[in-house]
Design brief:
By secondary structure, this protein is α+β, with helices and mostly antiparallel strands. It is built from three helices and six strands, in the order E-E-H-E-H-H-E-E-E. Strand 1 and strand 2 form a beta hairpin. Helix 2 crosses helix 3. The radius of gyration is 16 Å and the shape is globular. It starts with 17 loop residues before the first strand and ends in a 5-residue tail after the last strand.
């Protein structure tokens, strides 16, 4: 019995040691910008991230993946398959499209995006912040 409980969250335990961050921020000058970098608890500590103004081409997104200092984590790592770069690029492209198509979204933070041992990226946590309404 769950007396006094408002609900229950059941979530898959996602295996994998590699954690990345993908996001969107709305810059006052440049508009929607896409971010990619090292995620999880190391996001703020190591500040290993790159940014691009949306929209992103597939070339732009793949280039972003290669620009972080921790790029070796995207290759074969500790007996795990290389990260699926096309899938990661797809996430970045989609974030840019969302930012362009939805001006009420101020920020999206996908952190962490874990890389499974087979290389597939999985968004484990997501936060979406909206632009405050004008009073």
């Amino acid at each position: 019995a769950l007396s006094g409980c408002d609900g229950l969250l059941v979530a898959e335990m996602v295996p994998g040691e590699r954690e990345l961050v993908c996001g969107l921020t709305r810059d006052p000058q440049f508009g929607p910008c896409v971010m990619f970098g090292l995620g999880g608890v190391l996001t703020e500590a190591l500040a290993d991230a790159v940014f691009r103004v949306a929209p992103l081409s597939r070339f732009d997104a793949l280039e972003m993946l290669q620009e972080i200092r921790a790029v070796k984590l995207l290759g074969a790592f500790r007996g795990q398959a290389p990260a699926d770069l096309d899938a990661l690029a797809g996430i970045l492209i989609a974030l840019g499209e969302i930012g362009l198509g939805h001006p009420t979204i101020r920020e999206i933070d996908l952190n962490p995006v874990k890389i499974r041992p087979d290389g597939a990226p999985v968004v484990v946590d997501a936060l979406i912040a909206l632009v405050p309404p004008r009073g």
